[in-house]
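subagent[fold] <- orchestrator: predict structure for attached chain, return tokens only, no commentary.
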Amino acid sequence: LARTPSRDVLLVSAIITVSLSVTIVLCGICQWCQRKMGKRYKTSLETVGTPDSSRGRSEKKTIKLPAGGKAGNAAPAPGQPPHDESDRKTEPHSSVSDLVNSLTSEMLMLSPGSEDDEGHEGISRENLGRIQFSVGYNFQESTLTVKIMKAQELPAKDFSGTSDPFVKIYLLPDKKHKLETKVKRKNLNPHWNETFLFEGFPYEKVVQRVLYLQVLDYDRFSRNDPIGEVSIPLNKVDLTQMQTFWKDLKPCSDGSGSRGELLLSLCYNPSANSIVVNIIKARNLKAMDIGGTSDPYVKVWLMYKDKRVEKKKTVVMKRCLNPVFNESFAFDIPTERLRETTIVITVMDKDRLSRNDVIGKIYLSWKSGPGEVKHWKDMIARPRQAVAQWHQLKA
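subagent[fold] -> orchestrator:
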């Protein structure tokens, strides 16, 4: 009888010890995962084990439905399937696969140029964010009022993983007169709440115009990077009172027509820590002179962390819209700096009596457009080989 209580005590102690150990281990794993994987893992855990109220809050984060938007625009974020209550109950391990899928999608979104990879068509290539604005007309004062409110989910254009957005406002076809908002530093969800007035504008002329908004990323030492644009014909808007809109941003187009194309090659030598840029030729360049031609040459800037490091340029080709250059330039770029390096190629028109005109530009780096990123990735994947590609010149 004396041994029985001792055996029971030992058994109870063992059970308590094992339970505490398991609890500590699980708690440690949970905290470690949350620190390492961030909010996505936490959201996945909440979906499995929290009340419906908590699960509802996490779902709202994946819905791209801004205040004032239409319900038809609500959709889960790319790479995240909508939660199903029945699946949550019948498949207790489904959150693990959801977590893997969401993390995979996140890594693909963070991978430069991943939109061009095959087999990932579900990831939107044109997710440029959205902008909220309002427009109305005061008939008594003949004034058009445009208010820029805010933007959401803008893409990061800087190496720091953010942007410095501002908005340009035009009434097309007039592009000489524009208004601009303030720059919002390091903000992908900026709030402007700025009002702009187009005074002395007869209503008959207003309805012939197109309200054009262009969102850009401000760069102090280089050209501002376009983020996206929105255009809305004013003859399709009831201007008798202020109308508020949410519009998805679209890729910026060059309203002045094609600026031409440039063929160039890149050759990366990892052992020599160098990149050779060969400016081969251009075609269908935009005529910048009164005589219907141009005197083109090409400037090549090496940039590191948005700072200019080195510049080189070709000779000037007189009165030619399809010049052949065939000039090569070598730049020393250590491997550890490669990811934060940008090569800016500018096709210029030489003027003797006035300032040289910019015909078009190309930005080659990890963060450029799909075509530029593809060329950069091909260069890295094929070291010591000259990889050539045509590029459309941009404003």
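orchestrator: received. Logging for downstream: Residues 29-125 have pLDDT under 50 and may be disordered. The chain is about 25% helix and 35% strand.
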